[in-house]
Amino acid sequence: MPWKFRLAEYVRTQLLERKEYPPSVEVLTELFQTLFFASLKREENQAIACRVAFIDRNRPDPFPPERITADRWRYFSFEHELEFNARNLAKLSTAVDPWGTTLAVDLGEDRKLRIWGLIDQSVHYSTYIVKEASKGPEMPGMFQAVIQGIGEIGVYKTYLLLASLKHDTLVKGQRRVFQVGPIHSKLMRRINRFQQKVRKRVGSTLYDERDHWNKSLEDMWISALCRILIGIQRYGHGGAVLLSDDRGGLNKKYTLNYHRLATALTRGAARQIQHTGYSDQIGELIQEEADEVPMGLYLDDATSASDVTHINNEITGCVRFLASLSRVDGLIWLDSQLQLKGFGVEITVKEEPPEVLMAQDSEANKTKALDLNYFGTRHRSMVRYCAAHPESIGFVVSQDGDVRAITKVDERVIMWDNVRIQSLRNARRVSQ
Hints:
- By secondary structure, this protein is α+β, with helices and mostly antiparallel strands.
- Helix content is 38%, strand content 24%.
- The chain starts with a helix and ends in a 6-residue tail after the last strand.
- It has helices spanning 3-17, 25-39, 86-93, 123-129, 181-202, 204-207, 213-235, 260-287, 295-324, 377-388, and strands at 42-43, 46-47, 51-54, 75-83, 102-107, 113-119, 143-149, 152-157, 160-166, 169-171, 239-243, 250-258, 331-334, 340-347, 356-359, 367-369, 393-397, 403-409, 412-416, 425-426.
- The protein is globular, with a radius of gyration of 24 Å.
- The chain has ten helices and 20 strands.
- Helix 7 runs parallel beside helix 9 and helix 8 runs antiparallel to helix 9 (295-324).
- Strands 3, 4, 5, 6, 7, 8, 9, 10 and 20 form a nine-stranded mixed beta sheet that branches.
C-alpha cells in the first residue's frame, strides 16, 4: 500500500478512536500528498515549511475556555479562499512561518480542500514544543499537519504525535529514551548528583516540603540537554554531542571550559525552590487569615521570582551558545555536569565493536543487527567511542534532522533512532 494511503488510514483511525469525525481517507490522502509535494519545492531559493490545521470555518472554536487569555489563538478569514495545492502552499510559505502562523484548511462547498484563513499566536505552541516555555496552549482544529523537511510530514493533535512520514516511511511514534530505558538510567546517575547539589544549596527541610522536586529537577536537566539537540537540529547541518568524563580517544580542536550552563541550572533550580517556599508561606498566612503578612516576605517572593526569570533567560542563552558550536566540524564534548570541555572534537578510537544493534523500542528489549555501512562518519565514530567507553552517551543529529542516541548496554552497543527531544507524546491505541 502506498505511503499516502497508509498515513491517511492510520491518522483517520487515531482520530476516530478519539471520538472525532475526520474527513474520508481520500480527503486525508489528498491533504498529505499535497503537503508532501509542496515539501519538495523551493520558493525564492528557500525550502518550503508550513503548518496547517484542519478546522471547520463554520465552527472554528466550538469549545472555547471560560477564560480566554489575551495570547490565545484567533482565526482571520481570507476575503477569497484559496485552492489547497502545492503552488499556493509554496507561495504562502514565504509569509506564514510555521513558528508563529497556522493555515486554516477545510472542505469548501465543492467538497474540495480550501485554505480559508490564517491563525495567529502559534509562537506560544512552538516555544513550548522546543522546551523554551514551561507550558503551552491548545491548538485549533481537529488535527494539525506540518511540513518538517523535504519529504517529511508530521501529523499532530496538539501535543500528540498521531504519525509522521519520513520520505516513504510511516513513523507511528518516537523513542522515549529520555524517559525510560538504558539511556535514561545512565542519565539519572548524572542527574542524581545535580539533585543532591541543589538539595545541599537550599537545605533538606525546604527541599522536602514538596515531593516533586526530584522529578522537576530531572525534567529541568534533561530539557537543557534536549534543547541543545533541538538547536543543532534547527541549524540543518547535522552535529553530535558526547556526554563523557573520559578524555581518552578524543582529539580536541578547540579546548574551552564553559561551565555556565551547569552553574545556571543549579542556581535556577535552587532559586525556584526558594521562590516556591516564599509563595507557600504567603499563601498559608492568607489562608489562616493572619493579621498581616511581613513586608520582607513579599519582597523575598518578588525578588526570587525576578531571579528565576533572569536565570531562565541565562539558560536559554547558554543553550543557544552551546548549540552554535556544532557548526564547526567535530562533536561537542560535555561532561556529566553538562560542562563543556571542548568542541570541534575528533574521535580517535579506531577499533570497531563486533556487533551493533538497533533498538526497536525505548527500553531496547527488542533489537536487530545494524549494518554501519549505511551510516556516515559521525555515527560510526560515535559507535566506536561508546563501545570503548561504556559510561558514555552519544547523540548524533543528521542533516535531515533525525536524532539518534548511542551507548553500551552490558556488552552490546545499541543505537536508537527517531529519538524524541521535543515536548510531544506518542499516540496510543485507545480502544483495546
